[in-house]
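Try this one yourself first.
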């Protein structure tokens, strides 16, 4: 099999070595860490880029969508400034993304193109931890959605419930606060802010 003219000779780091995409912030590359079939929380290791077992989920709650992050983004001061009603700082991680797909995808450690529709403004232990909500590009069921308002309410409800409960522990109060969902226009501002935060943090 012939190699393409340009290719990665070694595996790129999913956070720093993969492009966000030419159509960002409307359509972005997403690196998927967890699928709706996972009862274990996987997270990309910051040093190596390989998926690491973060923790087995304590509760029976499973993610209702594909879940991962947008490469070459960083939640810093610009992202934090968009969190209305909260005096917070960024969580210093890449921007999280939930990707809805009509066809089941049961394999993580993949990249895909996702069309941004909106997001959930989440604060976790005093840090901005937005969850961008998107659909798989060219999905045959969700291809006509243009904004979070086009999604069924139950989809957003399940996402909100998952993030409100996935860190719950007995006899401990939750550190998670989730505000009202926002639409595509604000979500794209969050993505743009995270791209600028990334350039500031990891500029060559």
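Now uncover the answer:
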């Amino acid at each position: 099999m012939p190699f393409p003219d340009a290719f990665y000779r070694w595996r790129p780091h999913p956070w720093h070595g993969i492009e966000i995409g030419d159509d960002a912030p409307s359509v972005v590359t997403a690196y998927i860490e967890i699928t709706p079939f996972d009862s274990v929380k996987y997270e990309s290791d910051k040093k190596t880029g390989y998926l690491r077992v973060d923790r087995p989920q304590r509760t029976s709650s499973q993610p209702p969508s594909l879940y991962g992050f947008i490469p070459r983004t960083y939640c810093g001061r610009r992202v934090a400034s968009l969190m209305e009603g909260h005096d917070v700082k960024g969580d210093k991680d890449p921007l999280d993304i939930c990707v809805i797909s009509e066809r089941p995808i049961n394999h993580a450690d993949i990249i895909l193109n996702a069309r941004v529709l909106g997001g959930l403004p989440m604060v976790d232990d005093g840090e901005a931890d937005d969850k961008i909500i998107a659909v798989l590009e060219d999905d045959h069921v969700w291809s006509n959605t243009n904004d979070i308002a086009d999604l069924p309410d139950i989809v957003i409800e399940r996402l909100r419930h998952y993030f409100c409960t996935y860190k719950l522990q007995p006899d401990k109060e939750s550190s998670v606060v989730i505000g009202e969902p926002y639409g595509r226009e604000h979500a794209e501002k969050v993505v743009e802010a995270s791209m600028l935060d990334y350039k500031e943090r990891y500029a060559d």
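Discussion: The radius of gyration is 16 Å. Residues 27-202 form a domain with the Inorganic Pyrophosphatase fold (CATH 3.90.80.10).
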